[in-house]
Amino acid sequence: MKLTEEARSILETSYKHNRIGDTERQEIEFLIESLPEDRKLIYKNVDSNPIGDLERYSIHIRLQHMLTFVTFLTLAFTGLPILFLHAFWAEPFNILLGGIEITRIIHRTIAMIMIFTMVYHIFTIIFGAMLTIKQRRFDVRRTILPLMKDFYDFRDDILYFAGKKEQRPEMDKFMYKQKIHYFAAGFGNTVMIVSGSAFLFPEFWASILPESYASYFQELMRLSHPHEALLALLVIAFWHWYNVHLAPGRFPMQWTFLSGKITREHQIEEHFLEYLRNLVESPEEREQLREMMNRKGLLQTSTPGEETTA
Amino acid sequence: MIYNQYTQSLLKYFFDLSRINIIKVCVLPVLLHLIGISIIFFLLLITPIAFANFDDDEGCLICHSYPRMTRVTEDGAVRSYYVIPEVYANTVHRNVPCRDCHTYIKELPHKPVKEGVTCNTECHSIKNPATGQPFSHKTIYDTYMQSIHGRNKIVDGVESDKPYCVTCHTNPLYDPNEETPPEHVVGRCVLCHESEKFVTQWYKHTSRRIRDVKRSPQRIVELCASCHDDPKLVKRHVEHAEKEGLEIGAKFSIAVKSYNDSFHGKLTNYGYENAANCLDCHVEQDNFYKSVHEIRPSRDPLSPVHKDNKVNTCKKCHIYADANYAQLDAHPTAMPGQGDFRHIAEQIYNIISVVTIIGLVGLSLIETFARRRDGAAFQLKGGTSWRRKIKSNVDIEKN
Question: What pTM was computed for the model?
Answer without folding.
Answer: 0.79
